Amino acid sequence: MEVTTHGRSAHASTPWEGINAISKMASLLTRLEADQLQKFARRRHPLTPPPSINFGTITGGVKSNMVADVCKVTIDRRTLPNEDTETALKEIQEVIENLAKEDPEFNARIQVLRTGSPIDTPLNSPVVRYAQHACSLLGLPAEPVAMPGKRRSVLCRERYSYDSHSPGKASQAHTVNESIEIDQVIEASRLYALLAFLILNPRIRKMKSS
Predict the structure, then answer these.
(1) 4 vs 54: CA distance, rounded Å
(2) Nearest 10 degrees: Cα torsion 199, 200, 204, 210
(3) What are the tens digits of pLDDT across the range 73-118?
(4) Of 29, 46, 89, 175, whose CB has the highest number of CB atoms within 10 Å?
(5) Which H or E run contains 107?
(6) How many angstroms separate the Cα of 202 from the Cα of each of 15, 198, 199, 208?
């Protein structure tokens, strides 16, 4: 989502003549982070990390000798499978409304840019069972795990209802010098090939169903 705070421009030598939208945004982000982290501490899912919120980008103002009349921040709020996006948005809106009640000069608006519900594939679903069997055959860990980041599966979840993972370390995602070991690519290729064989082979499907 994108949150915009609105103020009133003035000369930097007389900032009291204006309303600094950047200052208002700073108050909002401080309050919002504290509020969300307090709520996140009470929310859990058996396979995933806690929910999260990230302030990704911020822009505002024209130049240093002017009071900023607009400030914009993009926020990424990740929900758990047992949360819903409507409630997550409502909680952020409540923080904005409370600040507006406390400060008559506070003026902020939310624009939702994109939403996507989390995927919670049942552990007894065929794709999970086939994946566990493939891992066992290759000597890999077969315990189900959750992927905290969004994948392309969000775009096709209604049809396929599972998440596909790429090889590599999640801790390196979106970092400087992101890399992957060749052995991991080979290992993942073997796993995907075997998984496809197990899922698509009619004889194996018949044996599993019986």
Answers:
(1) 16
(2) 70
(3) 999 999 988 888 899 999 999 999 999 999 999 999 999 999 887 7
(4) 29
(5) none
(6) 74, 9, 8, 10
Q: What is the pLDDT of residue 146?
A: 74
CATH fold of 126-209:
DNA polymerase; domain 1 (1.10.150)
- For the entire predicted model, the pTM comes to 0.71
For tokens 């055959």, name the residue. Answer: 137
Rounded CA separation 161/207 (Å): 23
Q: What is the pLDDT, as a whole number, of residue 95?
A: 97
What is the rounded distance in angstroms from the CA atom of residue 49 to the CA atom of residue 64? Answer: 40
Return the amino acid letter for 168.
Answer: G
Q: Which of the listed CATH numbers 3.40.605.10, 3.20.110.20, 3.40.50.300, 3.30.70.360 matches domain 2-111? A: 3.30.70.360
